[in-house]
Amino acid sequence: MSVFVSGATGFIAQHIVNDLLQQNYKVIGTARSQEKVDKLIKQFGNNKNFSMEIVKDVADINAFDDVFKRRGSEIKYVLHTASPFHFNVTDAEKDLLIPAVNGTKGILSSIKKYAPKNVERFVVTSSFAAVSDLEDQSNSNVIYTEKDWCKLNWQTAQANAVAAYWGSKTFAEKAAWEFLEENKDSVSLKITAINPVYVFGPQLFDEDVTAKLNTSCEFINSLVHSTPETKVEKTCAGNFIDVRDVSKAHILAFQKEETIGKRLILSEGPFGMQDIVNTLNKDFPQLKGKIAPTYEETDVKLNKNFAKINNDETKKILGFKFRTFDETVDDTAKQILRVEKRL
Ligand code: NDP
User: What does the record give under GO molecular function (predicted)?
Assistant: First the structure.
């Protein structure tokens, strides 16, 4: 039986596919075009346990029908990672909200139609965006847990690009839980949601280190390429987690019984852009003097002006220690510098 990974070309999904193959699972991945399918198959060395299918656009509610009709009987676990993650929004509904929500509704409806009994577990890559509220982010009295939900509605989610992304993840995750409630008698699957904060870490393949990286790693990439004149915010930018831990959590999410019905907040702690700069200056002598300068007094160190996260329940369920800030920043930067022959 196989594990199905939607959006296998993504930054996080490539690590998941790699870890699954190392654990000897058969993996079926999806990508939007034949070109992307061919590239990934080649990058994974034509691994006999890895096959790929084209799913052109998850905004099409029937996008997953064809693949589940043909291969649904092979699939036991589904990891749904495909969803747009960017802030280049001209039309909030078209660019983010509809693809995210239809993607989740569509894949679940294809499972119901073509693999209702053999798909046992469904892991949806949601986000901490589905947990937190944008206006509370700088409220130091707020402590988020796995029980919290972003309060945006379809209308308020269209206020700007960030709200649209927050809304896209919130409504997509809600769609999964609602599907289960409405269809619990007609499908076998159990759901786990993965709610990561900003995900850093190396790209799985060096050849994917291009001038611009995926949205979250671009935070680090932009600072590796900053100048001494770059103006860096000293405040908290969010929380971080390493991609290798996110991958591990997706796999444990379908392997463990304790994850059933849970939302898992993946976060190791807060960070600010200045903290990234400080780590780069500390650990890479070749960058010192060439990038933005170090300031020790950041809001994160002073521990003020931002909401906190209590993800003790997630940590207890998963049972492994997350990578540190320095490790994830260093490994991301090391790969960029190696590819640019500056290491
Ligand atoms: P990537 O942009 O690298 O991956 C996104 C994946 O979704 C790609 O495979 C992409 O395909 C696919 N995709 C996007 N839009 C569509 C569409 N309309 N139709 C079909 N496929 C589509 O981002 P990440 O790996 O960072 O994100 C993966 C998941 O993790 C997303 O659900 C994201 O919301 C979530 N997440 C990410 C965080 C982060 O900090 N990185 C934090 C929290 C959650 P293609 O390669 O062709 O563009």
Answer: oxidoreductase activity, acting on the CH-OH group of donors, NAD or NADP as acceptor
